[in-house]
Amino acid sequence: MATRSPQHTPAVWRRADLRPDEWTVDLGAAQRAALVAAGRRLAADGATIDRIDRTAVALPGMDGDIAAWSSMLESGRGFVLLRGFPTDELSDLETELAYVALGAHLGRPVGQNKHGDLVTHVRDERVVDDGATVLLYRTRKRQDFHTDGADIIGLLCLHGALAGGESKLVSSGALYNEMLHTRPDLLGQLYRPMCWDRQGEHGEGEQPWFELAPLNDIDGVPRLFYLGWYIRAAQQHPGVPQLTDAQAEAMEMLERLANDPEFHLVMTFEPGDVQLLNNGRILHAREAFDDADDLSERRHLLRLWLAA
């Protein structure tokens, strides 16, 4: 069995270790003005989000802020919440352009699905869930702790839910350390390849599942990539090896720890909030929510994926 060591970085935390002032930033008037100017200029120029990079639009006076936020993501707690993004001063198009411009100063926007969409709208679309191919972010159901498919994940809140929808974050390093301390045998199971369902995001001729271990050491650092419902959904496909009892127990332990209030942080989104997280350090979850019938009044987030 491989010799493994606990992780010791600021990104390894439990809820009691955190103070709100560590991870909350209230945008000031100058920062908001720079974002408003960027959004309006890009819209006036007919810019499209696929052509926005940090050289395409300046954010005057924000270089130091962006460097600080990048440091919080890379070498700090692994996440930050920016409050006061100027959605109240921008049109829908200007908001989206300004948001991508901000993201482009933190990383490179990357596609989130087989269509290559750089921004996705996270809201309940009232789609019929067939239990296999409907992505949970298009519903109001709970999403358990998971990772997404990029280095940095951004969520901008345009509209909150009637009730529920809280965001929860947990340190993947803290989960790793706890499993290493109490059940190193189950931690080892997460290093074994498992089959994942593609959730309908595969091309013609591709098999609807792929194989990947949830845990891999990258440059000597454990990195957890995990969506439990993708792994369980893959079990339906012919030819997919069934999860062993030990693998299933390892998944259950990981999820049980993540859902323990001792480990995770809860935050509620307000319009203008931007949550940024390091996908290699943090797992995130969303509680189920109640929503309005009117589409314009429903909980609505803009999601951005960035390669750092």
Please give a structural write-up.
There is one protein chain. This protein is α+β, with helices and mostly antiparallel strands and 308 residues long. The chain is built from eight helices and 17 strands. The strands form five sheets. Strands 1, 2, 3, 4, 6, 14 and 17 form a seven-stranded mixed sheet that branches. Strands 5-15-8-13 form a four-stranded antiparallel sheet. Strand 11 and strand 12 form a beta hairpin. The protein is globular.
Number of helical segments with 4 or more residues:
8
**How many beta-strand elements?**
17
Ends apart, CA distance between termini: 33 Å
> Which structural class best describes the helix and strand composition?
alpha+beta
Instruction: Summarize the biggest pleated sheet.
Output: 7 strands, mixed
Order of secondary-structure elements:
HEHHEHEEEEEEHHEEEEHHEEEEE
Strand content: 15-25%
Helix content: 25-40%
Shape: globular
Uncertain regions: pLDDT < 50 for 5+ in a row? none
Computed over alpha carbons, the radius of gyration is: 20 Å
Q: Give the overall average pLDDT.
A: 94
Helix-strand blueprint:
Layout: H1 20-23, E1 24-26, H2 29-44, H3 63-75, E2 79-83, H4 92-104, E3 108-109, E4 119-122, E5 143-146, E6 152-159, E7 163-164, E8 167-171, H5 172-182, H6 184-189, E9 194-197, E10 209-212, E11 215-218, E12 221-224, H7 228-233, H8 245-258, E13 265-267, E14 274-278, E15 282-286, E16 289-290, E17 300-307
Parallel strand pairs: 1-2
Antiparallel strand pairs: 2-14, 3-17, 4-17, 5-15, 6-14, 6-17, 7-16, 8-13, 8-15, 9-10, 11-12
Helix pairs in contact: 2-4, 5-8
